[in-house]
Design goal:
This protein has one domain: 3-Layer(aba) Sandwich (Trna Endonuclease, Chain: A, domain 1), CATH 3.40.1350. With about 170 residues, the chain is α+β, with helices and mostly antiparallel strands. Helix 1 runs antiparallel to helix 7. The chain contains seven helices and six strands.
């Protein structure tokens, strides 16, 4: 795997951890889940053939977090995009939708509310290249325990991190 892959993983983990902390602070239980955490050993062993098999694609598209409380349980995929409008490729949505249709996609982007979310099942598969922020709800509309003041606080932290990431890694798009 290339340095670009590892740099993007590091950048993405900053925001995944931020979403995790915001949810935990709001009273949700949050566990790491998926390809980069619980299946990290597997990802280094996948070959081109196994990576593109049905099971390989399922593993690679697995959500990042398991989030739950007394009434709900969600699998959550977190994506960070440093530019606005965010480029969320239709192929990414199709893969998640195929295997994890009941999950929630959280997008962190330096625009507006910063934290957006949508149930994958409610995203229409598009032929166009990217999804718009108008396809998403505010983060706290899905995770209703999250308070507006916490969103504002973590919004400022996310924007500070975005500036720091640009300084550390240059202007490489995520």
């Amino acid at each position: 795997m290339s340095q670009f892959y590892y740099d993007n993983m590091l950048k993405g983990n900053l925001y995944k951890d931020m979403v995790k902390v915001m949810l935990q602070k709001s009273g949700y239980s949050v566990c790491p889940y998926g390809y980069e955490s619980t299946l990290s050993e597997v990802k280094s062993k996948l070959t081109a053939e196994t990576r593109n098999s049905v099971t390989g694609r399922r593993i690679r598209s697995s959500p990042d977090l398991l989030v739950y409380d007394q009434k709900n349980v969600w699998l959550v995929e977190v994506k960070m995009r440093s530019k606005s409008p965010p480029m969320i490729r239709a192929s990414e949505i199709r893969n998640v939708k195929e295997f994890w249709g009941d999950s929630v996609l959280v997008v962190v982007v330096p625009e507006g509310n910063t934290f957006y979310a949508q149930r994958i099942s409610e995203l229409e598969v598009q032929e166009s290249d990217c999804y718009q922020l108008s396809d998403f709800e505010k983060f706290q509309d899905i995770f209703t325990r999250v308070q507006s003041e916490d969103v504002k606080y973590y919004q400022s932290v996310a924007l500070q991190n975005a500036r720091a990431v640009k300084l550390l890694f240059g202007l490489v798009e995520m």
